[in-house]
From TrEMBL:
Pfam families: GPP34. It is found in: Golgi apparatus membrane. It comes from the Bacteria. It comes from Amycolatopsis melonis. Gene3D superfamilies: yeast vps74-n-term truncation variant domain like. InterPro entries: GPP34-like (IPR008628), GPP34-like_sf (IPR038261). This is GPP34 family phosphoprotein.
Length: 329
């Protein structure tokens, strides 16, 4: 007769009263290496049998050891002491000034700057060189920001160009008399000449300078020539109410004004009228020899050279207009 199952201990398994171990757990422990057998993590927590441990030890003892060839990681290398080559203080060159690098790039001595042919600036009109004078330090930022002053000075220089071409005459009273049938191949200068020829009578130089300076028209005429020379371009703003502006696209025109004066003013010949007119326009823009990086000897010769007598009323009218611009009304 089979004995009844004891359920008086709240469902505990038989043998739980004898130390918490079932009667048949001894056989399981003996089969797996005893109660204190080592449990391997790869077997899911179950103890590793003694036979498997013995097989692993026997396999490790039987297999031959493969010799490891000596390599960089196994063989210690001798430590090389770093030696620093010290340059004597006498061999260290002093830092070159910024003006020297800028002049080397402009004069074509720097091979990093591409020097196009025919871009020396010697044959540029003096109105272009006057406008480029304000960029003598940087092609991205002008030294003179007063647009009205620039327009008045450039307008006077455009009239002086017509005088150098022999297409206008300025009398002692300051009135400008254009040649009625004259024509200029330069589109910008010819536009100025056409406006002068459209008037039936001669008018003073002051109103004409003020006319070409209105809305910076004279400055735009010169920028148009620089765009045609492929050294500038027009940038339009995304804002509809903002007028487009002009920027330089080449670094070479930065030095055209200085190179022109250095080429024209020599010890062997007299100063040409064009160079004297250009210098007069640069002075009206408050640019001097130090700003232009010009030789002081050249500047002194330009100071001593008088303008043509017929142009005195023209620049006298320019001075009067610039004085009124400086006085707030």
């Amino acid at each position: 007769m089979r004995p009844a199952v004891d359920t008086s201990d709240n469902g505990r398994t038989p043998g739980a009263r004898h130390g918490g171990r079932a009667p048949n757990t001894r056989a399981v422990d003996d089969a797996h290496g005893g109660r204190h057998a080592v449990r391997h993590p790869t077997t899911g927590g179950l103890p590793l049998p003694r036979s498997a441990l013995a097989l692993a030890n026997a396999t490790t003892d039987v297999l031959p050891r493969v010799p490891v060839p000596p390599g960089p990681s196994t063989v210690p290398q001798p430590r090389v002491q770093e030696t620093r080559s010290e340059v004597p203080p006498a061999a260290v060159l002093p830092p070159q000034p910024r003006v020297t690098e800028r002049r080397a790039a402009i004069d074509g001595q720097d091979t990093r700057v591409r020097q196009p042919e025919g871009y020396s600036g010697f044959d540029r009109p003096i109105a272009d060189l006057t406008l480029l004078g304000i960029y003598c330090d940087s092609m991205y930022q002008a030294l003179v920001r007063d647009g009205d002053r620039i327009a008045h000075v450039v307008g006077a220089i455009l009239l002086a160009e017509l005088y150098l071409h022999g297409q206008i005459r300025i009398d002692a009273g300051g009135k400008i008399h254009p040649q009625r049938r004259a024509h200029n191949d330069d589109v910008s200068v010819n536009e100025v000449l056409a406006d002068l020829q459209a008037q039936p009578h001669a008018r003073p130089a002051g109103p004409w300078i003020r006319y070409f300076a209105h809305d910076h028209r004279a400055t735009r005429l010169v920028w148009r020539r620089l765009v045609e020379a492929d050294v500038a371009q027009e940038e339009k703003s995304r804002l509809r109410w903002k007028k487009p502006r002009h920027v330089l696209t080449s670094y070479l025109p930065v030095g055209w004004t200085r190179k022109y004066l250095e080429h024209q003013v020599t010890d062997q010949a007299a100063v040409p009228p064009a160079a004297a007119i250009l210098w007069r326009g640069l002075q009206a823009l408050c640019l001097d020899s130090r700003t232009l990086d010009l030789d002081p000897r050249i500047a002194s010769r330009l100071e001593a050279t008088p303008l043509p007598a017929e142009l005195d009323p023209l620049f006298a009218a320019l001075d009067d207009l610039l004085i009124h611009l400086a006085i707030p009304l």
